[in-house]
Structure formats: C-alpha cells, structure tokens
Design goal:
This protein is α/β, with parallel strands linked by helices. Helix content is 35%, strand content 16%.
Length: 297
C-alpha cells in the first residue's frame, strides 16, 4: 500500500499529539495552549493526533480522558482525530524502503547488554545520547549475513537501527527552521548534529516503527506546516530531519517551548505521578485559572 503523498497546505496546520499512556498534566495543557495560540496567530488550524504506537501502555480510557480534558480547556481542533495505531502498515513500508537503501540493520541486543557494552562511566556524558541513555556501541552493526539470518530464523527478537554514518553521508549537513518565540514569529536556522544520537532505533522489537519514524511520516501525511512541542524534543529534531531527508518528506517549521516543571525544577511526567488535569478539575480549579497561570507565569 502506497504512502499518501503530501499536498501543499493552503494555510498553516499544527498538531497536538499526546500519548494515551496516562492522564494529561499541566505540561500537556501548556503545549496544547501554545499550539492553539500559534495556530490562531498564524491564521491556521490544528489537529489532534493520538500517538498510541505503544500498544502495551496505551488505553482507550486515556484517549477518552484526553478528549474530555481538551474540551474542559475549551480547545477546539479540526476533525477527525488520527490514531497512530491505524497506520502501522505505512510505517513498515517506509522502514522497508530504508532497508532497501541498506540504512537499517537488525540489532539483537537487550537493554542490559547495551548498557554493559557501552562502557558507561560515571558522569561520562560522551557515552550518552542527548536523552541521557547509553549510546549504542554498534555490537550488531557488523554481524555477518549468516549470523543475522540464523538469529532471525531462530526468532531472536530484533529491533532495526539506522546506520547513522551512512545516512549522514547521503543527507549531507542538515538544519531546521525554528521560531524564536511564540509571539514574534521571527525564524532562526539551527544546524543539526545527528551523530550525537548514534545508531537510533527506527523499528522497535514489538512494533514496526518508533516514535521518530511515525512522527515524521504523520507530520507529512497530515500536511503539518508548524510543530510546537517541548524543549525536551529539541535534540530529537536532528533525527527527524535525517529521516525527512532520506524519505523525501517536507520539513515543518518548529517551535520548542519551555517546560512546566515541579518545585525541584524537574519536568512533569506521568511516570512521576504529576498531578493530572482531572485532579486539578476535581480540586475546583477552573480552565481559565489554569490557562492564565501557565501561560502568563
């Protein structure tokens, strides 16, 4: 099945793309508010995309909660809502294209093996990617075709990694356009450094995609012209530009906004049990109070 080609957008289109693996918190609300604000300032619209590729953690009740929270915040998006779980076939087609270009290779390592083989040293940032995870040491990069075939035939779980050196050789230097502010609309150019990520995972062991692959494909398919998201994803844009270049996809203009943090200056997270929007709603806080608090703090 052929991947849908992008038609030129007649007006700016943004998107808000939460994952349904928990209830939304203040950080999500801020990102949604910024997306809505930018769409209005640009004279465009925004879409709601549910990034539910992680089928083990995504729950239908969380999808319903997302819809309820956004309605409570008085936010309106252009229908319909896209579920990434309906698009696995397209992600696999794109990954197969990268495999035919000899840019993906199977990796059979477990997380524990990667950490052990990476030789992580205390406070050795050079051994880590921008997210702080161990850089993949390339254990499976040079496996012989016979060994690869043997392991695949034995059903050893494999993820597929991007051969970053080869990929960068094809793309050459890359950059992306970034809004300096949600108010001024001035644009700056940021040079990419994808090599700092090493050979990133493009297809996970449990599903035929990864966040990086699915997000660039869906942004292209949905004609997204501008992406507003947190600064925690700024460095990941390097990977997205590599994939956009390799797959011939258009690049949006990005805006990476500040993060809402807790009293310890740590970003809010579902995994940390950060207060959810529904908790705040039940506590009697109004949507207007919340909007004013986080947009004008």
């Amino acid at each position: 099945m052929k991947q849908s080609s992008r038609t030129k957008a007649t007006k700016p289109i943004l998107r808000f793309a939460p994952s349904p693996n928990g209830f939304l918190h203040l950080g999500h609300a801020y990102s949604a508010f910024v997306t809505d604000k930018l769409a209005k300032k640009l004279g465009g619209t925004w879409l709601l995309r549910i990034e539910d590729i992680d089928q083990n953690r995504s729950k239908p009740e969380f999808i319903q909660a997302i819809l309820q929270d956004l309605k409570w915040l008085d936010l309106n998006w252009t229908k319909p809502v896209l579920l990434q779980s309906t698009r696995f076939e397209y992600y696999e087609i794109a990954a197969d294209r990268l495999k035919k270009m000899k840019l993906l290779y199977p990796c059979f390592c477990t997380r524990k093996q990667i950490q052990e083989n990476a030789g992580i040293k205390k406070n050795a940032d050079s051994d880590k990617d921008p997210d702080g995870a161990p850089l993949y040491p390339g254990t499976c990069k040079n496996l012989s075709p016979d060994k690869i075939e043997q392991r695949l035939n034995a059903k050893v779980p494999a993820q597929y990694r991007l051969h970053m050196d080869k990929a960068m050789g094809l793309t050459g230097p890359l950059s992306f356009k970034q809004l300096q502010s949600e108010n001024s609309m001035a644009i700056t150019t940021i040079n990419c450094q994808p090599e700092r990520w090493g050979d990133v995972v493009i297809q996970r062991k449990d599903i035929p995609t990864s966040y990086h692959l699915s997000v660039v494909l869906d942004d292209a398919m949905q004609n997204i012209t501008h992406v507003a998201r947190g600064k925690d994803l700024l460095a990941a844009t390097d990977i997205h530009r590599v994939l956009q270049s390799l797959l011939g996809l258009p690049q949006p203009i990005y805006f990476h906004h500040e993060l809402i943090t807790d009293p310890q200056q740590q970003k809010l997270a579902k995994s940390k049990g950060s207060a959810s929007l529904r908790d705040l709603r039940l506590a009697g806080i109004s949507a207007d109070e919340l909007r004013n608090d986080i947009l004008f703090r």
